[in-house]
Amino acid sequence: MIEKSIVKNLVEEWLEGKDYFLVSIEISQDNKIVVEIDHADGVWIEDCVELSRHIEEHLDREKEDFELEVGSAGLGQPFKVVQQYLNYIGKEVEVLDADGKKTKGILKSVDGNDFTVTTQQKMKLEGKKRPELVDVDMNFQMDKVKYTKYIISFK
Prior knowledge:
By secondary structure, this protein is α+β, with helices and mostly antiparallel strands. It is built from three helices and eight strands; from the N terminus they run αββαβαβββββ. It has helices at 4-15, 45-58, 82-87; strands at 21-27, 32-38, 67-72, 92-97, 102-111, 114-123, 132-141, 145-150. The strands form two sheets. It has a five-stranded antiparallel β-sheet with strand order 7-6-5-4-8. The protein has a three-stranded mixed β-sheet with strand order 1-2-3, covered by helices on one side. The longest helix has 14 residues, at 45-58. The radius of gyration is 20 Å and the shape is elongated.
């Protein structure tokens, strides 16, 4: 089986000096290698092809056969790395917490493992007859939520 560390080194070598970042590398028992990269402005197919060629040039199919797939992390898929959170600050996200409760709101900030989402909730304000929508910041920890993902909007 091809070692993940070898593929990771090859990917990091290709990424050097580029604005892309590594999201994940998966290698199955039958040597299917899946590499996901991302970029703040999206991923170009030409760059996926270039990375794929770079990896293939440095692995020996004669020694060990493999299948290789290089692509983007996928819009609307759960975030896997901190950089994805950072790229979506100011955008609408959905968070599924450890208790199974979904929260939708604007990703406000990211600090290490912690992130804040601003939601709108109806609250009865003093001196008002009816409840009004107010912004409420909710704090989460990346390693304590089931997922966070960008909400695709066609408005």
